[in-house]
Design goal:
With 308 residues, this protein is α/β, with parallel strands linked by helices. The protein has one domain: Collagenase (Catalytic Domain) (3-Layer(aba) Sandwich), CATH 3.40.390. Helices cover 20% and strands 13% of the residues. The protein contains seven helices and nine strands. The chain has a five-stranded mixed sheet with strand order 4-3-6-9-8, sandwiched between helices. Strands 1-2 form a two-stranded antiparallel ribbon. α4 links the parallel β3 and β4. α4 crosses α6. The longest helix has 15 residues. The protein is globular. Keywords: Calcium, Secreted, Signal. Its main location: secreted.
């Protein structure tokens, strides 16, 4: 959801521990996640299995799934992250460092400014996802978020709005349509810019819609990372109609989430469901989040995938 600005920029502020912070509004390279993929089979294995049975149709033979990758030959997507096992194993150029046994989330980050998210901000976001209390098929916990920096210095026609508007370069959908390099790969899209409007109101400094988000940046690593987590939460389907989201009626103890306005700018994590609200947002992110379509599967991106 959006996030607000000060003075001429209409930014509402909070005073926390001596730091003046912007206040949020309604719904928002480098791969810094741990990640890692399975070893690529050798030529003999690929040739021997090229005509073998592929029960789940994920592009990997049953024998390779059992003997090499430890994936489920009856499940197209063993880790349930939205990417078929075969794509995670063979499409390194599309999904760098993907692991078919760990939850992967890919985000393309563009900017209308000369710079992108700082390394400390990216590290803070990646570490937050790595600590997510969710289980993976390989016995590990956490989520690998891959922040892929693409274009900077994109031209914006003034304020970037969260809803489609007439004209070019003035809403988040324009930028995704014209500049996203990874949309067919199932990437989320985040735009960094210096002037964001939510529902036509540029009082806000961030806005999130399904699969996309736009946000401004601040000098503080924590504030910028927290704003990203909030708006990206909206991009994944954590919506304002849900109890406590984009509201101040619950304390952080009652609703311990960056989606809570009382948690925004103070923390980065989502709720694990143990607070009074009782919504396990991390489980939702791992299992039920809104996900961009993966059009690159089923050999659609064969030029970026190894054969076999």
């Amino acid at each position: 959801m959006p996030i607000a600005r000060f003075g001429a920029v209409a930014l509402v502020t909070l005073l926390l521990a001596g730091v003046v912070l912007p206040v949020a509004g309604v719904p928002p390279q480098v791969n810094t996640a741990s990640g890692g993929g399975a070893d690529t089979p050798n030529t003999q294995q690929v040739q021997a299995d090229s005509n073998a049975t592929d029960t789940d149709g994920d592009g990997l033979s049953d024998s390779l799934e059992r003997s090499v990758y430890d994936t489920d030959p009856t499940d197209t997507d063993t880790d349930g992250d939205g990417y078929p096992d075969g794509m995670e194993v063979r499409c390194e150029q599309a999904l760098p460092d993907a692991d078919p046994l760990r939850t992967d989330i890919y985000v393309e980050v563009d900017s209308t400014e000369a710079t992108t998210l700082s390394d400390p901000v990216q590290t803070s976001i990646a570490e937050t996802f790595e600590k997510a209390p969710v289980s993976n098929p390989d016995g590990s916990t956490g989520i690998d978020i891959h922040l892929v920096t693409d274009e900077t210095n994109l031209s914006a026609n003034g304020t970037v709005y969260s809803k489609s508007r007439a004209g070019a370069g003035n809403d988040i959908y324009d930028f995704r349509a014209n500049h996203s390099e990874h949309r067919s790969d199932g990437y989320y899209y985040v735009l960094l810019t210096d002037d964001v409007a939510y529902n036509g109101d540029d009082y806000f400094v961030g806005a999130g819609r399904p699969e996309i988000a736009a946000m401004e940046r601040f000098d503080s690593t924590k504030i910028t990372a927290s704003l990203f987590m909030h708006e990206f939460g909206h991009a994944m389907g954590l919506d304002a109609h849900q109890d406590g989201i984009d509201e101040e009626r619950y304390s952080r103890t009652e609703y311990d989430s960056v989606m809570n306005y009382n948690g925004l700018y103070r923390q980065l994590t989502y709720s694990n469901g143990t607070d009074s609200v009782g919504r396990n947002e991390w489980q939702f992110v791992a299992e039920n989040r809104t996900q961009p379509d993966v059009e690159c599967a089923d050999n659609a991106c064969s030029s970026r995938c190894t054969q076999g």
